[in-house]
Design goal:
This protein is an alpha+beta fold. The protein has 2 domains: about 140 residues, Pleckstrin-homology domain (PH domain)/Phosphotyrosine-binding domain (PTB) (PH-domain like, Roll); about 45 residues, no CATH class. It has 4 helices and 9 strands, in the order αββαβαββββββα. Strand 5 and strand 6 form a beta hairpin.
């Protein structure tokens, strides 16, 4: 279902009079993926920061080796947990809260969100049913998009990854089984023909 065909006049109202709406898709945050909103990779040593001080080297050096197993499992479990999202869903967002990606990420879970690409902007708008209209959420200039590509994963075929000129990047989820809406966004963002 192409939202541009269904809601063209409503979506055009979000744009300026001389701005052309090129593509639209219902979107949201990917169901899995690592969030790197600070732009930094987490320090693995921080995973062990909350362990009790005697978990590894207790005051009693005669402690049996098997007393350390629970602490080691907790530490290893923390490290594995930190990587599971990245393994399953890749990286969902990179950049600071004020970056282009951070601005979009903040609104991707607002409800029935639509990603709208015009010849000037990448906008997010929420479709409210009572009354039936679109409410503008945020936008970034299309010139800030360095690269947009399909980055599908298991049960995320419509996953679009957008990289920005400020070094930030965001994954936009447009579909579980189908990628047509995601491909339309990519084509519009990269200046290709929108099908």
């Amino acid at each position: 279902m192409d939202p541009l065909r269904l809601y063209r006049s409503d979506l055009q109202q979000l744009a300026d009079a001389d701005e052309a709406v090129l593509a639209a898709a219902s979107c949201g945050r990917p169901p899995a993926g690592a969030e790197r909103l600070t732009g930094e990779r987490p320090d693995p040593r921080e995973q062990f920061a909350n362990l009790p001080p005697d978990s590894w080297d207790g005051p009693d050096r005669r402690e049996c080796w098997w007393h350390r197993i629970p602490a080691a499992l907790v530490g290893a479990g923390s490290l594995v947990h930190a990587d599971v999202d990245r393994i399953l869903g890749g990286v969902s967002v990179v950049g600071g809260p004020g970056s282009y990606a951070g601005r979009l990420w903040a609104y991707l879970d607002e409800g029935l969100v639509f990603c709208v690409v015009t010849d000037r902007r990448l906008m997010l708008a929420v479709h409210e049913l009572d009354p039936d209209h679109f409410r503008f959420l945020t936008d970034v200039p299309v010139e800030a998009v360095e690269r947009a590509r399909m980055a599908g994963r298991f049960l995320q075929r419509g996953r679009v990854f957008v990289e920005f000129s400020d070094g930030s990047a965001v994954a936009i989820f447009t579909g579980v089984f189908f990628a047509a809406r995601g491909r339309a966004l990519v084509a519009a963002l990269m200046g290709g023909p929108v099908g």
